[in-house]
Amino acid sequence: DSGVTQTPKHLITATGQRVTLRCSPRSGDLSVYWYQQSLDQGLQFLIQYYNGEERAKGNILERFSAQQFPDLHSELNLSSLELGDSALYFCASSVRGLGVTIHEQYFGPGTRLTVT
Amino acid sequence: GENVEQHPSTLSVQEGDSAVIKCTYSDSASNYFPWYKQELGKRPQLIIDIRSNVGEKKDQRIAVTLNKTAKHFSLHITETQPEDSAVYFCAATGGGADGLTFGKGTHLIIQP
Protein backbone atom coordinates (compact mmCIF):
# COMPACT_ATOMS: atom_id res chain seq x y z
CA ASP A 1 0.00 0.00 0.00
CA SER A 2 1.59 3.28 -1.16
CA GLY A 3 -0.63 5.55 0.95
CA VAL A 4 -2.12 7.15 -2.18
CA THR A 5 -5.85 6.53 -2.55
CA GLN A 6 -8.04 6.81 -5.63
CA THR A 7 -11.77 6.56 -6.18
CA PRO A 8 -13.63 5.04 -7.83
CA LYS A 9 -11.84 1.78 -8.71
CA HIS A 10 -13.94 1.23 -11.79
CA LEU A 11 -16.06 3.54 -13.89
CA ILE A 12 -18.21 2.63 -16.87
CA THR A 13 -19.80 5.40 -18.86
CA ALA A 14 -21.00 6.28 -22.35
CA THR A 15 -19.40 8.36 -25.08
CA GLY A 16 -20.00 12.07 -24.72
CA GLN A 17 -20.30 11.91 -20.94
CA ARG A 18 -18.20 13.59 -18.25
CA VAL A 19 -16.56 11.91 -15.26
CA THR A 20 -14.48 12.97 -12.26
CA LEU A 21 -11.69 10.87 -10.79
CA ARG A 22 -10.46 11.58 -7.28
CA CYS A 23 -7.04 11.18 -5.67
CA SER A 24 -5.76 11.70 -2.13
CA PRO A 25 -1.96 11.92 -1.84
CA ARG A 26 0.21 10.42 0.88
CA SER A 27 0.23 12.36 4.10
CA GLY A 28 2.73 15.21 3.78
CA ASP A 29 3.07 15.04 -0.01
CA LEU A 30 2.45 18.34 -1.77
CA SER A 31 2.72 17.23 -5.40
CA VAL A 32 0.13 15.19 -7.27
CA TYR A 33 0.64 13.73 -10.73
CA TRP A 34 -1.89 12.18 -13.09
CA TYR A 35 -0.96 9.44 -15.57
CA GLN A 36 -2.92 7.54 -18.19
CA GLN A 37 -2.09 3.91 -19.03
CA SER A 38 -3.44 2.27 -22.18
CA LEU A 39 -2.27 -0.61 -24.34
CA ASP A 40 -1.41 1.54 -27.33
CA GLN A 41 0.00 4.65 -25.57
CA GLY A 42 1.65 3.03 -22.56
CA LEU A 43 2.08 5.08 -19.37
CA GLN A 44 1.76 8.80 -20.14
CA PHE A 45 2.14 11.80 -17.87
CA LEU A 46 -0.87 14.10 -18.01
CA ILE A 47 -0.44 16.88 -15.46
CA GLN A 48 1.17 17.83 -12.13
CA TYR A 49 -0.10 20.01 -9.31
CA TYR A 50 1.97 21.37 -6.47
CA ASN A 51 0.29 22.78 -3.37
CA GLY A 52 -2.84 23.75 -5.27
CA GLU A 53 -1.24 25.15 -8.40
CA GLU A 54 -0.57 23.62 -11.78
CA ARG A 55 3.15 22.85 -12.08
CA ALA A 56 3.66 20.93 -15.31
CA LYS A 57 1.65 19.66 -18.24
CA GLY A 58 2.23 16.56 -20.31
CA ASN A 59 0.09 14.94 -22.99
CA ILE A 60 -3.21 16.11 -21.56
CA LEU A 61 -6.11 16.65 -23.95
CA GLU A 62 -8.06 19.91 -23.88
CA ARG A 63 -11.15 17.87 -22.91
CA PHE A 64 -9.36 16.90 -19.69
CA SER A 65 -8.73 19.18 -16.74
CA ALA A 66 -7.57 18.82 -13.17
CA GLN A 67 -7.36 20.73 -9.94
CA GLN A 68 -5.86 20.36 -6.47
CA PHE A 69 -7.83 21.51 -3.47
CA PRO A 70 -6.64 23.17 -0.20
CA ASP A 71 -6.65 19.77 1.55
CA LEU A 72 -4.30 18.60 -1.27
CA HIS A 73 -6.63 16.04 -2.79
CA SER A 74 -6.91 16.26 -6.54
CA GLU A 75 -9.58 15.63 -9.14
CA LEU A 76 -9.19 14.80 -12.81
CA ASN A 77 -12.16 15.76 -14.96
CA LEU A 78 -12.66 14.04 -18.30
CA SER A 79 -15.36 15.41 -20.59
CA SER A 80 -16.87 14.62 -24.01
CA LEU A 81 -15.58 11.10 -23.52
CA GLU A 82 -14.55 9.00 -26.51
CA LEU A 83 -13.98 5.26 -26.83
CA GLY A 84 -10.25 5.93 -26.96
CA ASP A 85 -10.30 7.45 -23.48
CA SER A 86 -10.83 3.99 -22.01
CA ALA A 87 -7.74 3.40 -19.90
CA LEU A 88 -6.31 3.07 -16.41
CA TYR A 89 -5.83 6.46 -14.77
CA PHE A 90 -3.22 6.63 -12.04
CA CYS A 91 -2.49 9.32 -9.56
CA ALA A 92 0.94 9.58 -7.96
CA SER A 93 2.24 11.80 -5.21
CA SER A 94 5.62 13.00 -3.97
CA VAL A 95 7.03 15.45 -1.46
CA ARG A 96 8.41 17.34 -4.45
CA GLY A 97 8.60 21.02 -3.66
CA LEU A 98 9.95 23.99 -5.51
CA GLY A 99 13.58 23.06 -5.00
CA VAL A 100 15.90 21.30 -7.42
CA THR A 101 15.76 17.82 -5.91
CA ILE A 102 13.34 15.41 -7.55
CA HIS A 103 11.62 13.07 -5.14
CA GLU A 104 10.17 9.61 -5.57
CA GLN A 105 6.66 9.29 -6.93
CA TYR A 106 4.31 6.76 -5.35
CA PHE A 107 1.34 5.54 -7.33
CA GLY A 108 -2.23 4.95 -6.23
CA PRO A 109 -4.23 1.84 -7.20
CA GLY A 110 -5.74 3.52 -10.26
CA THR A 111 -9.21 4.03 -11.71
CA ARG A 112 -10.19 1.84 -14.63
CA LEU A 113 -12.36 3.86 -17.00
CA THR A 114 -14.41 2.09 -19.65
CA VAL A 115 -16.20 4.21 -22.24
CA THR A 116 -18.91 2.35 -24.17
CA GLY B 1 10.66 16.49 -24.95
CA GLU B 2 12.14 13.39 -23.41
CA ASN B 3 11.96 10.03 -25.20
CA VAL B 4 12.72 6.75 -23.42
CA GLU B 5 13.37 3.52 -25.31
CA GLN B 6 13.26 0.20 -23.43
CA HIS B 7 14.48 -3.26 -24.47
CA PRO B 8 13.59 -6.07 -24.63
CA SER B 9 9.80 -5.99 -24.65
CA THR B 10 9.70 -9.58 -23.34
CA LEU B 11 12.39 -11.41 -21.37
CA SER B 12 12.17 -15.03 -20.29
CA VAL B 13 14.81 -16.40 -17.89
CA GLN B 14 15.23 -19.53 -15.81
CA GLU B 15 14.61 -19.21 -12.10
CA GLY B 16 17.89 -18.40 -10.40
CA ASP B 17 19.43 -16.75 -13.47
CA SER B 18 20.00 -13.01 -13.91
CA ALA B 19 17.85 -10.60 -15.92
CA VAL B 20 18.95 -7.34 -17.51
CA ILE B 21 16.65 -4.65 -18.91
CA LYS B 22 18.08 -1.67 -20.81
CA CYS B 23 16.80 1.83 -21.42
CA THR B 24 18.05 4.85 -23.34
CA TYR B 25 16.91 8.43 -22.97
CA SER B 26 17.19 11.44 -25.24
CA ASP B 27 17.23 14.54 -23.01
CA SER B 28 20.69 15.15 -21.58
CA ALA B 29 19.10 17.37 -18.89
CA SER B 30 17.28 14.39 -17.33
CA ASN B 31 18.73 13.60 -13.92
CA TYR B 32 16.39 11.14 -12.20
CA PHE B 33 15.78 7.57 -13.38
CA PRO B 34 13.33 5.34 -11.48
CA TRP B 35 12.30 1.76 -12.18
CA TYR B 36 8.79 0.50 -11.52
CA LYS B 37 7.39 -3.02 -11.28
CA GLN B 38 3.77 -3.56 -12.24
CA GLU B 39 1.83 -6.75 -11.69
CA LEU B 40 -1.30 -7.39 -13.71
CA GLY B 41 -4.08 -4.97 -12.79
CA LYS B 42 -2.05 -3.30 -10.04
CA ARG B 43 -0.28 0.00 -9.54
CA PRO B 44 3.30 0.64 -10.67
CA GLN B 45 5.53 0.06 -7.65
CA LEU B 46 8.83 1.90 -7.28
CA ILE B 47 11.61 -0.67 -6.82
CA ILE B 48 14.79 1.36 -7.25
CA ASP B 49 15.95 4.70 -8.63
CA ILE B 50 19.18 6.44 -9.51
CA ARG B 51 20.21 10.06 -9.86
CA SER B 52 22.63 11.48 -12.38
CA ASN B 53 25.39 12.07 -9.84
CA VAL B 54 25.61 8.32 -9.19
CA GLY B 55 26.83 5.57 -11.54
CA GLU B 56 25.43 2.53 -9.78
CA LYS B 57 23.02 1.69 -6.99
CA LYS B 58 22.24 -1.67 -5.43
CA ASP B 59 19.45 -2.96 -3.21
CA GLN B 60 19.74 -6.66 -2.37
CA ARG B 61 19.13 -8.58 -5.65
CA ILE B 62 18.39 -5.45 -7.67
CA ALA B 63 20.91 -3.01 -9.12
CA VAL B 64 20.73 -0.11 -11.53
CA THR B 65 23.57 1.39 -13.55
CA LEU B 66 23.66 4.73 -15.32
CA ASN B 67 25.92 5.89 -18.14
CA LYS B 68 25.29 9.61 -18.60
CA THR B 69 27.63 9.95 -21.54
CA ALA B 70 25.84 7.28 -23.54
CA LYS B 71 22.46 8.25 -22.06
CA HIS B 72 21.50 4.76 -21.04
CA PHE B 73 20.63 2.98 -17.81
CA SER B 74 19.97 -0.63 -16.96
CA LEU B 75 18.19 -2.75 -14.37
CA HIS B 76 19.88 -5.93 -13.17
CA ILE B 77 18.04 -8.59 -11.19
CA THR B 78 20.12 -11.47 -9.84
CA GLU B 79 18.96 -14.87 -8.53
CA THR B 80 15.53 -14.39 -10.08
CA GLN B 81 12.51 -15.81 -8.29
CA PRO B 82 8.94 -16.55 -9.47
CA GLU B 83 7.67 -13.42 -7.70
CA ASP B 84 9.91 -11.32 -9.95
CA SER B 85 7.54 -12.08 -12.85
CA ALA B 86 5.89 -8.76 -13.80
CA VAL B 87 6.15 -5.86 -16.23
CA TYR B 88 9.05 -3.52 -15.50
CA PHE B 89 9.10 0.11 -16.60
CA CYS B 90 12.02 2.48 -16.73
CA ALA B 91 11.43 6.23 -16.61
CA ALA B 92 13.30 9.51 -16.77
CA THR B 93 12.69 13.09 -15.75
CA GLY B 94 14.46 16.27 -14.74
CA GLY B 95 14.83 18.14 -17.97
CA GLY B 96 12.59 20.99 -16.87
CA ALA B 97 9.37 19.00 -16.43
CA ASP B 98 8.52 16.88 -13.41
CA GLY B 99 6.37 14.26 -15.01
CA LEU B 100 7.98 10.89 -15.64
CA THR B 101 8.52 9.76 -19.22
CA PHE B 102 8.18 5.98 -19.29
CA GLY B 103 9.57 3.30 -21.53
CA LYS B 104 7.13 0.84 -23.12
CA GLY B 105 7.80 -1.83 -20.50
CA THR B 106 9.46 -5.25 -20.33
CA HIS B 107 7.43 -8.34 -19.53
CA LEU B 108 9.74 -10.46 -17.39
CA ILE B 109 8.84 -14.15 -17.22
CA ILE B 110 10.60 -16.40 -14.72
CA GLN B 111 10.56 -20.01 -15.88
CA PRO B 112 10.55 -22.62 -13.06
Oligomer: heterodimer
Question: Distance between termini of chain B?
Answer: 41 Å
Strand content of chain A: over 45%
Stretches of chain B where pLDDT falls below 50 for ≥5 residues?
Answer: none
- N-to-C span of chain A: 31 Å
What order do the SSEs of chain A take from the amino end to the carboxyl end, as H and E?
A: EEEEEEEEEEE
Could you tell me which chain pair has the largest interface and how many residues each side has? A-B, 24 and 24 residues
Annotation, overall tally of beta strands of chain A: 11
Number of helical segments of chain A?
0
Determine the fraction of residues in helical runs of chain B and give it as a percent range. Answer: under 10%
Counted beta strands of chain B: 11
List the helices and strands and how they pair.
The complex is a heterodimer of chains A (116) and B (112).
Chain A: E1 5-7, E2 10-13, E3 19-24, E4 31-38, E5 42-50, E6 53-57, E7 64-68, E8 74-78, E9 87-94, E10 106-107, E11 111-115
Parallel strand pairs in A: 2-11
Antiparallel strand pairs in A: 1-3, 3-8, 4-5, 4-9, 5-6, 7-8, 9-10, 9-11
Chain B: E1 4-7, E2 10-14, E3 19-25, E4 32-38, E5 45-51, E6 56-59, E7 62-67, E8 72-77, E9 86-92, E10 101-102, E11 106-111
Parallel strand pairs in B: 2-11
Antiparallel strand pairs in B: 1-3, 3-8, 4-5, 4-9, 6-7, 7-8, 9-10, 9-11
